[in-house]
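Reopening closed ticket. The problem is back. First fold of the pair:
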Amino acid sequence: MDLVACYGERLLPLYRFDTASGRWRHQGGLIEPPLRLADVHYDADGRMVYPTHHDRSDETELDHYLQSARQLLQSLPRPQLPEHVAGLSADFEHLRWFGLSTESVQR
């Protein structure tokens, strides 16, 4: 929580915010889901069969992951977050409680 609270705004330029739907999307597009409906089938006995992914890290790796994330986030520049973003309605601006960089707005 502390990491995102301190550095999360630096991720804003990597995302696009759709003012019509309220959705945030990564600029690289959608990621491949870990499982698709086409991956699910039933075997001859009627049992559901699907690929499983059991890749896990030990809890001892958490500190390493958090340190790596902190270094990555600290390396990103702080975006300019104007008080008002041009082109947004007054109603939208009145309700907006979060920082929004100009380049993140998708109209």
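Second fold of the pair, where the issue appears:
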Amino acid sequence: MLFGNDRRQLRQMYFDAWGKFRRQEPITPLEAQIAQVVAWHPEYHRLFDKPEKYLDQDYLPEFGETNPFLHLGLHLGIREQVSIDRPAGIAAVHGALKSRQDPHDAEHAMIEALAESLWEAQRAGTAPDEAGYLARLRRLVGEA
């Protein structure tokens, strides 16, 4: 596993990447991706400017809170899937969506399909249904 299960360590990586980007320090390709998705979300910038306050913050959906780290992580997950074209065909869907709309909006549409597929798998106690996920993605571009 790339990041392990340490929430604090993962979040620190996000804070570090954003800090390096803002200070115009050299960053790795992964840090550049993190910085780009943070840059796309100005509503989270105040959070990333205060790591000491938000490193251990809990975000509870039952109180209507959105977890910014989860949201940004889903962006990175989509990018990883597209880079390896898994499930097979996701790169073509991504390309088609980007040709019709802003890349950020395209990723958000794909994130909704990913989140729904993950939620269903979690609820059923199974692995995500890759074929069902790809079918959701293809519907985004008008494919059956």
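Update: turned out to be a display glitch only; the data is intact. The chain has a mean pLDDT of 93. The first helix runs from residue 7 to 22. Please close again.
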